[in-house]
């Protein structure tokens, strides 16, 4: 199991959602590989951003954002 911190690098309006640089969420995954590129990590990220910032998860999943991905020690 791995814990990841995903932080938005550049803000902007995407799919009607306003992202600000520095917005971040923490997620856990079963794999130690990049959760955005592999597996269902984008679903977990969309759900985390939707819960924390009250976004529409369906709109968030279809966006391509610039992010900083950090692996956190558990």
Number of strands: 5
Please state the average pLDDT score.
82
Strand order of the largest sheet: 4-1-5
Q: How would you sum up the major sheet? A: 3 strands, antiparallel
* Helical percentage: 10-25%
Q: Structural class given helices, strands, pairing?
A: alpha+beta
Cα shape:
globular
Oligomer: single chain
* Poorly predicted residue ranges: none
Strand content: 25-35%
- CA distance, first residue to last residue: 8 Å
Number of helices: 2
Radius of gyration of CA atoms, rounded to a whole number: 12 Å
Walk me through what this model shows.
The chain has 74 residues and is α+β, with helices and mostly antiparallel strands. It is built from two helices and five strands; from the N terminus they run ββββααβ. 24% of the residues lie in helices and 34% in strands. The strands form two sheets. The protein has a three-stranded antiparallel β-sheet. A two-stranded antiparallel ribbon has the order 2-3. Strand 2 (12-14) and strand 3 (17-19) form a beta hairpin. The longest helix is centred in the middle third of the chain and has 13 residues, at 41-53. The protein starts with a strand and ends with a strand.
Task: Give descriptors for this structure.
single chain; 74 residues; alpha+beta; three-stranded antiparallel sheet
